[in-house]
């Protein structure tokens, strides 16, 4: 089973039935929407998001223009597609590069979400685009996190700034001076994660934020965790303010709930998708492409 497979298969069945009918009645649309609703809920999409989504599609679909068109089934499918793209933010969102270097990117998230890996992937991607990134090791609590970042830095030939177990706020501040002195134009700060959100973690992240004034706070969340990922995103956004999301582990057997709900619930766009463990397994997130992948 691949990404969103269950959801894709169910929606395609519904679409097939819609297309096979010449004329559509309002009852046909209602029946199809009942199936779409079930498929989305089974894919772990947020309940309220599903409700709003289905209501919108239904409202647009039961108008005369659609029902009396030559291919009403196709029209309804087109509407589902458009609303799904809108749900995920519509357009692809880019990183906010500062006109005055260095651009400071702060990566936050729970332990195991893929923060350290994606810090390095992001650095690798930006390096290929001609930037000169610096990775900064501020996750001083997780054993081996500093070493992990250093190994990845070595692998992609990107410098890593670390001061061992020094206070993370100090490390972050010192890294900016280091970047300036070395002519490095993007600073990517790998912060500490915890197993659960707690006040201590948020307090530390807020202090780093105040100290380095990041141009971009990116939240790394694991797509495999479904609605939990959405709840985590909501908390981080409320407590810290998040500019964008990196949704990781989309190469796994994920159901789709996080990808389809997180923008609608938090207002934060998904900016990147993580699709594997290798350093090049990161993609800009394109809502249109994702919708096509889901709808087949
Ligand atoms: P952190 O605690 O948030 O810094 O998480 P890590 O970066 O250490 O990642 C945790 C684990 O998830 C590691 O084994 C990574 O290789 C793995 N991982 C991270 N991102 C992805 C991804 O997009 N796909 C897959 N399959 N594995 C990933």
TrEMBL record:
Domain SRP54-type proteins GTP-binding positions: 269-282
Catalytic activity reported: GTP + H2O = GDP + phosphate + H(+)
Cellular localisation: Cytoplasm
GO molecular-function terms, A-Z: 7S RNA binding; GTP binding; GTPase activity
Keywords, alphabetical: Cytoplasm, GTP-binding, Hydrolase, Nucleotide-binding, Ribonucleoprotein, RNA-binding, Signal recognition particle
Main location as per UniProt: cytoplasm
Annotated GTP binding sites: 109-116, 190-194, 248-251
EC number: 3.6.5.4
Keyword Kinase: no
One Gene Ontology term from the biological process aspect of the record: SRP-dependent cotranslational protein targeting to membrane
KW Ribonucleoprotein (keyword) present: yes
Gene Ontology annotations for the cellular component aspect, listed alphabetically: signal recognition particle
Family of the protein in this entry: Belongs to the GTP-binding SRP family. SRP54 subfamily.
Annotated domain remarks: Composed of three domains: the N-terminal N domain, which is responsible for interactions with the ribosome, the central G domain, which binds GTP, and the C-terminal M domain, which binds the RNA and the signal sequence of the RNC.
Assembly mode: Part of the signal recognition particle protein translocation system, which is composed of SRP and FtsY.
Job of this protein: Involved in targeting and insertion of nascent membrane proteins into the cytoplasmic membrane. Binds to the hydrophobic signal sequence of the ribosome-nascent chain (RNC) as it emerges from the ribosomes. The SRP-RNC complex is then targeted to the cytoplasmic membrane where it interacts with the SRP receptor FtsY.
Protein's name according to its UniProt entry: Signal recognition particle protein
UniProt organism field: Desulfitobacterium hafniense (strain Y51)
């Amino acid at each position: 089973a691949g990404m969103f497979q269950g959801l894709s298969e169910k929606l395609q069945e519904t679409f097939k039935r819609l297309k096979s009918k010449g004329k559509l009645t309002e009852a046909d649309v209602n029946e199809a929407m009942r199936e779409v609703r079930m498929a989305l809920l089974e894919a772990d999409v947020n309940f309220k998001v599903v409700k709003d989504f289905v209501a919108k599609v239904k409202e647009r679909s039961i108008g005369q223009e659609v029902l009396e068109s030559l291919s009403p089934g196709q029209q309804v499918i087109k509407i589902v597609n458009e609303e799904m793209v809108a749900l995920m933010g519509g357009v692809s969102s880019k990183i906010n590069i500062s006109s005055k270097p260095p651009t400071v990117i702060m990566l936050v998230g729970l332990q195991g979400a893929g923060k350290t890996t994606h810090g390095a992937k992001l650095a690798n991607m930006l390096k290929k685009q001609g930037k000169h990134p610096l990775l900064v090791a501020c996750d001083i609590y997780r054993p081996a996190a500093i070493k992990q970042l250093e190994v990845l830095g070595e692998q992609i030939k990107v410098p890593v700034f670390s001061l061992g177990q020094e206070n993370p706020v100090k490390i972050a501040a010192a890294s900016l001076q280091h970047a300036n002195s070395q002519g490095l134009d993007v600073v990517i700060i790998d912060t500490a994660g915890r197993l659960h959100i707690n006040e201590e973690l948020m307090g530390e992240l807020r202090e780093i934020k105040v100290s380095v004034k990041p141009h971009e706070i990116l939240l790394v969340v694991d797509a495999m965790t479904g609605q939990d990922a959405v709840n985590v995103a909501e908390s981080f956004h409320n407590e810290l303010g998040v500019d964008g999301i990196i949704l990781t582990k989309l190469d796994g057997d994920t159901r789709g709930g996080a990808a389809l709900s997180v923008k609608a619930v938090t207002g934060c766009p998904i900016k990147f998708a993580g699709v594997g463990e290798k350093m090049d397994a990161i993609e800009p997130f394109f809502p249109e492409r994702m919708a096509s992948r889901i709808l087949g």
